[in-house]
Amino acid sequence: MPRSIARVLALLELLQSGGIRTVTELAERLDVDERTVRRYAAHLVDLDVPVESVRGRYGGYRLAPGYRMPPLMLSDDEALAVLLGLVAGRRAGLTTATGTAGETAAAKIRRVLPARLVLRLDAVLGSLAFTAPPGEAVAPDSTVLLSIADAVNHHRPISIGYTASDGRRSERTLHPHGVVAHSGRWYVTAADLTSGEDRTFRLDRITAVRTLPGSFEPPAGIDPAERVLTGLATAPYRHEVTLRVQGTAEQIHTRLPAGVAIVEELPSPSSADPGTERWSRVEMRVDRLDWLPAVLASLDRPFVIERPDELRGLVEALAERLTRSARRSPPRG
């Protein structure tokens, strides 16, 4: 690569780090005079890279937002971070409806990398193993995601077209509070002006978004992530389970996460020994009960089943199976 071209690309890399760079600073970094820096900046402008000249005492050059992304100059560490981020995002379900966008972005980065770096990155990606299976991604439309995120950021009301799980379609007016990614799905928490309730909506079920005039003041202290988890834990299911478990909410959530169970720590009775551990009330709504006995056993904490009675029988059956297995002798020879 000719020396002048290498320095033009080096100038681009310096500008991509952000902020205003003075001509003097750039000349020192590139080991050229200030006139040459101005010529290099003009070369970038000719290539449609949006370089702005800032006048004044602290003026210099900076990159302005352009109609397209300028060429990126990535170091080895930055290239590795981008590619690993794309891999992790795809496995976690953090993708948009343009399902191949992550793959095409990775391919573009790989295509311009030096051969030695491609081999090193391939070695990392080829030897990388994950302890958890890929998430079941349900991708929202990128236009929907970006429009709702902008409305959240600027406190703008929106109108959406929504398809419920049973196929019913409706038009709703929302005051969106936050966007949450959970278990491969995207959600928006909002005040639903159509129903007068606070609701959570899946982004992949939103067919259209329109920003409405005006603005709103979001409630103080709202936690969109907590609201999504609470909504999932209280959704209508076949069985309603209520337990009392001796332990704190943090201890119980190690086996029963917030998206599955609502845990409320109970006050200690006035007559209780100060050293006695407090109890918590646990509420769940589940479609099946057969997985719960093993989870309760793994908590290794005293518990009381308040409802349903069917769960008592399942716990007793598990205890009997474990007892029989513990008393079984190993086979001879």
Written overview of the protein:
It is elongated and about 85 Å long. The chain is an alpha+beta fold. The model has no long low-confidence stretch (mean pLDDT 83). The chain has helices at residues 3-16, 23-30, 34-46, 76-92, 101-111, 115-127, 142-154, 224-233, 249-253, 292-299, 309-327; strands spanning 51-54, 60-63, 158-163, 169-182, 185-192, 197-202, 206-211, 239-246, 261-265, 279-286, 303-307.
**Anisotropy-based shape:** elongated
* Largest sheet strand order: 6-5-4-3-7
How many separate helices? 11
User: Span between N and C termini?
Assistant: 74 Å
Please report the total strand number as a whole number: 11
Q: What share of residues are in beta strands?
A: 15-25%
| Rounded mean pLDDT score | 83
Radius of gyration over all CA atoms, rounded = 29 Å
Structural class: alpha+beta
Elements, N to C (H/E): HHHEEHHHHEEEEEHEHEEHEH
> Considering DSSP H and I runs of 4 or more, what fraction of the residues is helical?
25-40%
- Biggest sheet descriptor: 5 strands, antiparallel
Low-pLDDT stretches: none
